Amino acid sequence: MDSHLPVVPEPANGDRVPDLSSRDPDWWRQAVVYQVYPRSFADADGDGLGDLRGITDRLTHLAALGVDALWLSPFYPSELADGGYDVADHRAVDPRLGSLDHFDALVAEAHRLGLKLVVDIVPNHTSHQHAWFQEALRAGPGSRARERYVFRDGRGVHGELPPSDWQSVFGGSAWERVPDGQWYLHLFAREQPDLNWADEEVRADLLATLRFWADRGVDGFRVDVAHALAKDLSEPLRDLGAPELSDEAALTVLPPGSHPFYDRDEVHEIYRDWRRLLDAYSPPRAAIAEAWVPGERRALYARPDELGQAFNFEFLQAPWHADALREVITASLAGARAVGATATWVLSNHDVVRHASRLMLPPGTDDNAWLLSGGHAPRIDPAAGLRRARAATLLMLALPGSSYLYQGEELGLPEVADLSAEVLQDPIWEQTGHVRKGRDGCRVPLPWTVSGPSYGFGAGGAWLSQPPSFASYAVQAQDGVEGSTLELYRAALKLRRKLAQGEELRWAEDVPDGVLAFTRSEGWRCVANLSERTVALPAGEVLLTSAPLEDGRLGPDTTVWLG
Fold first, then answer.
1. Which residues, at least 6 apart from 468, have a Cβ–Cβ distance to it below 8 Å?
2. What tens digit of pLDDT does each residue of 278-289 get?
């Protein structure tokens, strides 16, 4: 650990309520979970790539921040064709990031600090380097090894055309031809062949993977692309008929459950099998679905006999507008309540533009067009973006349910939009023919100190270099500084533990235009001013504000908690 980084104190026992080192089976219902992208969090060995020892060394930062759990994005062996989501071995650690011993040490330290640990599970596909896929290539058409994946003969006189018109999320056909003439399905990068979830061996192997990590002390699983496992592979494969319908947007056009490879009803049988295994542990292991599906369908993944929770992306995608956010919040709470789950809230993650930048883009602005401009069209005022991001965060943390934070948002980090084409590593850039810039800008390594070759990320440089402006966002620059974004997060999470016990809210109706206000079941209130004017502050004790009050009034882009 960098000797110049201030020592972050461990939280006092009184600040950790409920005790998440206990066996409480419902710890996840109101948790705050911090996402760690391992390659960009902290580098202990100085090779420029974040690693497990680096994460372990910095866990006191998360404990002092006041989160309840950390979620590890993939740390498995991978050639990084898709940032680690191309997994070559689902039950091992990438040697560049450490070993299983390092993983066990991380689990032990997290639990010592009262933190739960959630890990990413990638069940839809493997890396093309996976032993199973290499066996399938060697075995040839008709072999048992190929049944684990989705291999098909091509169309056309000589099989020269893809088996269907299905498209990859990353651009182009979702089919890749191999030398013997057959094609395999990859809904993402060509280095990520899709598994065949109709195959019993595939199903059994994933259960073994869940058991492997749960037995090592993992408390929960985040399920990548949870809606894509079940597919209609009956012959002939069904074309979607138009390229635009091959995208997930087709889910809003086709009858529910009828898409050939997204959100099919059969997928829920898979997760009921998983839940039986997860419930065999004491306490039961938690799970959350990444399912990019309409809200009423998403709730199905969160049923108690399935995964229990599902990410709410409507909140992340909603414009900074009071009416739109109220509608999303109301629908999300109702959908979760209907199946016995709690809602989830997220503003940033490893796949989207950081919300300190995104929320400042004018309505209708295309995120990708802004990234391609290097962040210059339109140009964003960093101070205004940070003010809005702080207000959004305080609003999110006041809502019933679980909040998911992304590493660096507690520092107020903006998107690094001006990365040059030469350093981009996201496969989206190449696979779309340089049409979509990709997600590297939200994955730039964290700054811990105000100086050094990588601002304390590691002894050497970083795999993606940080801009000079990152020095002012570093943990060292904000630690103990009144009014800093880091201290706002610490104060908000500490206060949230004391306030947020129930799972209900009641909207205030008599509020000015552009203002959101609600009362939680415990009696405390949240008021968020999303308008461009200053408004009167309701009566009550001011507990916390995202920005200073203006002569006792609530300024634009400001949220307050009232007792």
1. none
2. 999 999 999 999
